[in-house]
Structures are given as C-alpha cells and as structure tokens.
C-alpha cells in the first residue's frame, strides 16, 4: 500500500491527553501544554484531558498510565533533558511495549537545524503502551511546536490507524 493510501485510511479524529510535567508550571504559565492543545484541536483532534504533574516518576507514570489503553494518544511536555529532575523519559519508557525510535531521531535532527548541537541534550522519545501512542516532548514551547507541526500532527491519524489494524 502506498503512503498516500495509508494517509487516506488514517483516523481523522484522535482522542488525546496532554500532560505537562513540571515542578514550576501552572495553568497560567503552561505555554507548551496550551500549544499542544491548540495544535491538536486545530487539526480536528479531541483533547479529553489536560493536566500538570510534578516531575516525580511515579506521579508521571500514574497519570499517563490512566490514559493508556483508553485514549489513542498521550502527549507529554517537560522532563526530557539531562538535569537530575528530568525523569519523564525514564518513567514513561517503563510503560512502552514498543518504542518509536524514529521519532526521537527525527526530532533531534530537526532541532539541530534550529538550535545546533544543543539538540543532543534532548531525550525526547515516543512509544506504544497498550495501543496508545505516547510522545514525550521537551518543555520548551518552541520544541513542542516543532515536534507537533513537523512530526506528530502530520502522522497522528496514520499512527493510530496502524495501531488498530
């Protein structure tokens, strides 16, 4: 089947959760979470849940785990760097049954074009947990917009279609 055929078969409305992982962000200051919601809704997807959780591995796993198997996609923002409090990737990779290696590779390549060698500090990743695709994005609004517009929004419906085959 050609890529164009896959895209025609893609799910047009994806049910999503957005989770901001931060020790400091509030609803008023969560520009990255708002950007994810805005871009998903603009693409016609449904955001069923938006929340903010502290960067504590068990709390992150619990809140994301509550959505996997129930929604089509969970997109997190924050906690993907190399600082000691950046534990989102470590916490969520434990939920993954399969990893989407290409997501992190492509994200860092695109980031490199924008910010140069600092892109290597991002541990952004994605995987599949109980037929839910989980994207783990940096906390930067610019990074979120890059990942959403170049990678996630264009392929989200296709990814969900493939998961439910």
Which helices and strands, and how do they pair?
Elements: H1 3-9, E1 15-21, H2 31-42, E2 46-53, H3 57-65, E3 73-77, H4 88-93, E4 98-99, H5 101-115, E5 125-129, E6 132-137, H6 141-163
Parallel strand pairs: 1-2, 1-3, 3-6
Antiparallel strand pairs: 4-5, 5-6
Short summary:
The protein is an alpha/beta fold.
Write structural notes for this entry.
This protein has 165 residues and is α/β, with parallel strands linked by helices. The protein has a single domain, classed as MoaB/Mog-like domain (Molybdenum Cofactor Biosythetic Enzyme, Chain A, 3-Layer(aba) Sandwich). 44% of the residues lie in helices and 20% in strands. Strand 5 and strand 6 form a beta hairpin. The chain is globular and about 45 Å long.
Q: Which CATH class?
A: Alpha Beta
Q: Roughly how many Å is the radius of gyration?
A: 15 Å
Total strands: 6
Contiguous helical run count: 6
Strand content: 15-25%
CATH H level, superfamily name: MoaB/Mog-like domain
Please identify the structural class as seen in this structure: alpha/beta
CATH architectural type: 3-Layer(aba) Sandwich
The CATH topology comes to Molybdenum Cofactor Biosythetic Enzyme, Chain A
What are the defining features of this structure?
165 residues, six-stranded mixed sheet, globular
